[in-house]
Amino acid sequence: MASRAMETAPRDDDLFSRVAAHLEPGPLLEATPECLVVTRGNGQIVYANARVQLLTGFTRDELVGGTIELLIATDVLGLPAEARVEALCRRNTGDQFPVEVNIGAIDAGEPLLVVTLRDLSELQAGRDAQFEAEAKYRALVEHIPAVVYLDPVDEDDTSIYVSPQIRDLIGIEPDEWLTDPYSWRRHVHPDDIDRAWDEYQAAYNGHTPLNHEYRMVHEDGTVRWVLEQAFPIDDENGSPWLIQGVIFDITERKNAEEQVAFLAYHDKLTGLPNRALFEEMLESAIARARRSDGAVGVLFLDLDNFKMVNDTLGHHSGDLLLAQLADRLRTCTRDTDLVARQGGDEFLLLLSDLDREEDAAEHAALATAEMVANRVREALAEPFDLHGTQFLAAGSIGISLFPHDAQDAETLMKNADAAMYKTKRTEPGSFTVFTTGDLDPAQQFSLTTRLREAVREERWVLHWQPIVDVATGQIESLEALIRWRDPKGGLVPPLEFIPLAEELGLIEAIGDWVLAELVRQQKEWRDQGLDLRLGFNLSPRQLWSARLAEKVMAAMRAGGVDPDRVVVEITESTAMADPDRTQKILSELHAWGFTLALDDFGTGYSSLARLKHMPVDVLKIDRAFVHDVNNDISQASMVRAMIQLAQGLDMIPLAEGVETPQEYEFLRANGCRFAQGFLFSRPVPADEVPTLAARTEGLLPVPSGG
Questions:
Q1: Closest CA to 553 of 584, 585, 593
Q2: Region for residue 271 given its phi and psi (left: phi exceeds 0; alpha: psi -120 to 50; beta: otherwise)
Q3: How far apart (Å, rounded) are the C-alpha atoms in residues 313 and 203?
Q4: 8-state DSSP, 234
Q5: In degrees rounded to 5, what are phi and psi of residue 296?
Q6: CB 25: neighbour CB atoms within 10 A?
Q7: pLDDT tens-digit profile of 631-647?
Q8: SS3 202
Q9: Which residues pair with 5 in a beta bridge?
């Protein structure tokens, strides 16, 4: 329709000439970079410069005489003079593109409109690209789990943009954040505002990235941990322009970290501090006591009948008992004290900042410690309600004091542990204050000091006692027996220092040395061509130490020793103190290939049912039964029964303390497989062992008492 209108519209050459004359000079109109169109008031085109053809493809002849609607899709005739609008312009191909339309008015004998067109295609493309970029930006930032903001570098201005996630984070609308310059400060936790603001300012002033954590308070009062990361954006001249930041809600992560930190230092079942935290607090308490001339007390509590609960009522009841006991123990101490769970049914109490009377410091501290111990006993005197079952628990307590009993945290705890074990042996359910025995103070101090030095400087030596085959007299194995090389007392036998070492908590260090020396000696003899099976004794504290089997096996690997060539001995009383735990530990050792021996059999209270399931290879009959067995009918009957019991349980019977040929003959006649004692050899130093092992006739000829 527009083309037909052009064909019928008459060309007014006179008007064209008048327009051209009015818009003199003509060549300038053609040279102008603008597309210029002149129309009558009704929109009929009377003039178009050459730029119009370049822009639209329409020739001047096609346009002149036609109407402005041929070029512009938007109605512009009703616009006032000097108006400027954006419109769509048509090309002769039929497509449209954006233009800026400027309208002016002239009078060339009649009112005319001068319309200029400026191509906005590139500008529109830029706008479209910007819109698309903004849309993508919003789609991205408004769907990530974080608040995104843009701040101007002028600190007096409010934010330029904040994403809608601000609603979830602190409960306000984005508009409030953008219009209130103090919105951020009002929602930062009061305890964090100064630090967070200083860190923000330091990054702002230094034009450096920001990365910090702080707390914000939601409108509902809940506290949220956030991680804020921000970085500066420069303009095209490299000057600071904007600060773009992201605020992440890290509350769940912080809660998880706090939970992990809590569990690292607390017992999950009772909520009490664990041993790790107890040791840290004990170190701090001792440091304070040194500065203030004060005292510190440690109480070690172990339940005497806890196993009964687990065996009869189940582990759920056992856990309930421990939780209830933890609550009671909290009431037995002062606000400055600490109650911790050592593990299992063992608890630790730290009495810090104890007063010390002048010239009698230990007495004041001891009075407080004994008072707390009595409170614990009173707490245990009340029955525990275990799912409807009333249960009376009993516990043994050991007390150790700084500085009277020890100068460091580790020794203080070991002393309390040793005192607790003494309570169990002598008066279960009561408490014992740590002591080194019945020696006078000077002797106690001297012996304790020398023994500690012996541990520190490893003043030990191993002697070896052969275990022989009863039938042949040949050495079957060697038992390691420790001696203390005391500079003041020569070689000290174990019975004179092992009890004190246990009481002082030094026995584990001594046991570690024995194990290392056994491995070294076995390798040395093996290099000399002596393939000897060696045995050593585990103390109760060693047996209950964590990861015992792995520790012993690691020592074997380090020395290249086959576990099959090593005998591990424990006493019957130790094994029966906690049969379930013992069986588990022995099973681990047995699985590694160690030979296991039950020492001092007959002196404890073995349950035959328990003994049947223990992975024991050798049953060592205590010397008390072997002594004079050939003359005592009742003892002879017991030894025969023990030999038969061992054989029936697929264990090897071994008699200890054989001293006379008559005792030897009795054992051989009754089928005892192995024996050891002075009849065959006393314990000898390592350098004498090769001579013993070289005796082809065996050790039977060694005279009694030799």
A1: 593
A2: left
A3: 63
A4: E
A5: -135, 140
A6: 10
A7: 888 889 989 999 999 99
A8: helix
A9: none
